[in-house]
Amino acid sequence: MPPIPLTRQSEDTLSDTAATEDHPLRIDARPPAASIHERVLNTVAARICGPEAGRANGEGESETCLAMLCDAVVTSEAAFSAALARLRSQHGLRDEDIVDCYIPAAACQLGTDWAENRRSFAEVTIGTARLIAAVRDLGRRWTADSVADWRAPSMAMVVPEAEQHRLGAMIAATRFRRLGVSVQMLLGRPDNEVIACIREGDFALVSFSLATRDRVEQTRHLIQMLRRDVEDLPPIVVGGAVGVNADELKAQLGADHVVSDPEEALRRCGVTVQKPPGQALQAKA
């Protein structure tokens, strides 16, 4: 399946009948991708037109830029690079803005376009691969060595095995790194490798990234094994666009916190970061 299927409500939005008596889940009324997309457009509009402009003045320009980016990313590498350059030169956006806002919005839009038969499987797959490559490329200067010093806290970012949706975790990792946290990525690793890594590591927190409900049960089982097999287990945080009420997902999984904002995750876990002299480390919302 293409990498962003959250807008396929018939498949990915849980209904009341999907909950069990043992693990009842209340699902947000709005489709996850739709609400994410709206929040991203709000943020993009505010950054282009200022916080006082609001959606009325900023939405049209942000949607035009988003459409331009989506068309470019499915066309060619050259077209995509030119679109990114245009966002920087004409709209004054930083790489942080592009990674935090436009790339997630483009991923959601590609998923919507596929669900509504406006783009093909091949276009969405190629486009998403280019978005992932862009996050890797733009995020190189936010690696632990260049952002955090040797005293920086470290964390593990886990994407469950067989989970195809990894873009959100990669974007979250760049935000944690900009805050001064060293991030070890565990993408699609077998459960036993995840357990061994966390047991041997010195992590201030462990974060799980879930894009859909498909890996909820698998993640619950892995968290149970971590609590059983790892002494002095750090706080476990779950984030992502799974579309399940946070309190109920926390109870379902046995996590310590369910939160998608990196700064809030650090606060809830009691993790403090020493900012390097002369460097302001702040993740954009």
List descriptors.
single chain; 285 residues; alpha/beta; Rossmann fold; five-stranded parallel beta sheet; 9% strand
What do the pLDDT scores average to?
Answer: 78
CATH level 3 topology of the largest domain:
Rossmann fold
Are there runs of 5+ residues with pLDDT below 50, and where?
Answer: 1-37, 44-58, 277-285
- What is the count of structural domains? 2
Helices, strands, pairings?
Blueprint: H1 9-12, H2 32-49, H3 54-73, H4 77-91, H5 95-115, H6 121-138, H7 144-147, E1 154-159, H8 167-178, E2 182-187, H9 191-200, E3 205-210, H10 216-229, E4 236-240, H11 246-253, E5 257-258, H12 262-268
Parallel strand pairs: 1-2, 1-3, 3-4, 4-5
Helix pairs in contact: 2-3, 2-5, 3-4, 3-5, 5-6, 5-8, 6-8, 9-10
Question: Would you write up a description of this structure?
Answer:
By secondary structure, the chain is of the alpha/beta class. Helix 5 (95-115) runs antiparallel to helix 6 (121-138). It has 2 domains: 30-142, no CATH class; 144-268, Rossmann fold (3-Layer(aba) Sandwich). Strands 2-1-3-4-5 form a 5-stranded parallel β-sheet, sandwiched between helices. It has 12 helices and 5 strands. Strand 1, helix 8 and strand 2 (182-187) form a beta-alpha-beta unit.
